[in-house]
Amino acid sequence: MSYREVLEVTLGRMESLTAREIEVSRLIARGLSNKQIGEQLKISEQTVKNHTHTIYRKLTVSNRVELTIHVYGNYEKNLTAASAWPRHAKNGGRAGTGSARRHSV
10, 18, 8: which is closest to 72 by C-alpha? Predict the structure, then answer.
């Protein structure tokens, strides 16, 4: 199988993740525990575990290290930002970079 074929299969798997699964996988890749992820996303630890299991199944990985390699190796290096991660339309995905303009009356 060529690199391009492997990449296409991998991209297809990643695109199958929901927005929440993408959030959870990014936080796992950053090294957060299930408890920390749950606190940050305001969901239970069990829900984080359920998302993690689904992510592993969809991406055919078996642990956090494989998932982290998958996330950093594929999302950030091989995909364009627009197709890889949910982005905010107004500021091109850069949270907190919007500027409020004051208009004088």
Answer: 10
Structure tokens at 44: 């239970």
Instruction: Round to whole Å and give the CA distance between 35 and 17.
Output: 21
pTM: 0.62
**Topology of 3-84 in CATH?**
Rossmann fold (3.40.50)
DSSP 60-71: T--SHHHHHHHI
The answer to whether the CB of 68 falls within 8 A of the CB of 76 is: no
CA end-to-end distance (rounded Å), the chain: 64
Instruction: Please give the structure tokens belonging to residue 54.
Output: 């689904």
Per-residue pLDDT of the chain (105 residues; tens, 9 = 90+): 554 555 455 555 667 889 999 999 999 999 999 999 999 999 999 999 999 999 999 998 999 999 988 887 765 555 444 444 454 444 444 444 444 444 444
